[in-house]
């Protein structure tokens, strides 16, 4: 979840959001396999959601840059 929250700091490198996804999915799987011995499924899910949000924002940013560069070149 921490990497998902700090995703804005690493958004351009995509390191934080990707690691948030990897660790979030791994943590959620381990929690499910622990038969109630481990908790924190909500935090793992929050990390996954934040990781996907930052990746989506990164893709939107790239598409915006492409659209602006196309508009500038056709002027």
Keywords:
mainly alpha; 75 residues
Uncertain parts = none
- What structural class is derived from the secondary structure elements? mainly alpha
Distance from first to last alpha carbon: 44 Å
* Fraction of helical residues: over 70%
List how many beta strands DSSP finds.
Answer: 0
Task: Characterize the biggest β-sheet.
Answer: none
Overall tally of domains? 1
Strand content: under 5%
Task: Give the SSE string.
Answer: HHH
The DSSP helix count reads 3
Instruction: Please state the CA-atom Rg, rounded to the nearest Å.
Output: 17 Å
Whole-number mean pLDDT: 87
Shape: rod-shaped
Task: Give the helices and strands, then pairings.
Layout: H1 2-5, H2 15-33, H3 41-73
Helix pairs in contact: 2-3
Descriptive notes:
20% of the residues are buried. The longest helix has 33 residues. This protein has one domain. It contains three helices and no strands. Helix 2 runs antiparallel to helix 3. By secondary structure, it is an all-alpha fold. It is rod-shaped. The chain starts with a helix and ends with a helix.
How would you briefly describe this protein structure?
This protein has 75 residues and is mainly alpha-helical.
